[in-house]
Design a protein that fits this description.
It is a single chain. Helices cover 59% and strands 0% of the residues. The protein is mainly alpha-helical and 196 residues long. It has a domain of 60 residues. Helix 7 packs antiparallel against helix 8. The termini are far apart.
């Protein structure tokens, strides 16, 4: 209401409101630039309102002893809680994502038992090596088709020869294992099957 009575411009009102919002002291004279005539001075308000707030010389900080006496520096003791069964929670989440429902615990136990029974047998290393050699041959053929065969040929052939060497070692171990099995089962005749 005072601003309207003092006929301040919109710019001057906004400036004064910004000062109030920031908590700054109001200016005693308003020297704001406006497109009209020079701004009139802000009317003198009562001395209690016009006076800037004087802060005390001492800051309102608590002394260190007071802070240390309180609970600010004490740590909360660690209290371990009951551990969760992570496997159980994984299964539950899988069921929720797969079916959209939370399956009963009995079903979870049954599926776990089934997965243990259906364990995949350990793959044969000899077969793995054969597959790896085949993959390298296919890769080399693709590179030759793209015109990059010379770049990769020596690398791929070296890897293939290493795989063949490993296959020979695996084959030799298998032969020795078979020889031992045969000599245990047939102590007298085992040597006649495998000379050397």
């Amino acid at each position: 209401a005072m601003m309207e009575k003092s006929k301040l411009t919109h710019f001057q009102r906004r400036y004064l409101m910004d000062c109030v919002k920031r908590g700054d002291a109001l200016p005693l004279q308003c020297h704001l630039i406006s497109s009209k005539e020079p701004a009139p001075a802000v009317p003198a308000l009562s001395p209690a309102v016009c006076r800037p707030i004087r802060l005390s010389a001492k800051p309102h900080l608590r002394p260190a002893k007071v802070c240390q006496a309180g609970d600010a520096y004490t740590r909360e003791k660690f209290r371990p809680q009951a551990r969760r069964d992570l496997e159980k929670e994984k299964q539950r989440l899988q069921n929720i994502l797969a079916t959209g429902k939370d399956v009963v615990e009995c079903n979870v136990k049954q599926t776990r038992v089934q997965t243990k029974k259906e364990e995949i047998p350990e793959p044969d290393r000899f077969e793995e090596l054969v597959n790896e050699i085949q993959e390298r041959k296919e890769f080399l053929a693709e590179m030759e088709a793209l015109g990059q065969g010379k770049k990769y040929q020596s690398i791929v052939l070296t890897e293939i020869s290493q795989k063949i060497r490993e296959m020979e070692i695996v084959d030799k171990k298998r032969s020795e294992e078979m020889r031992e099995i045969m000599t245990k089962d047939f102590p007298a005749g085992g040597k006649s099957f495998f000379p050397g």
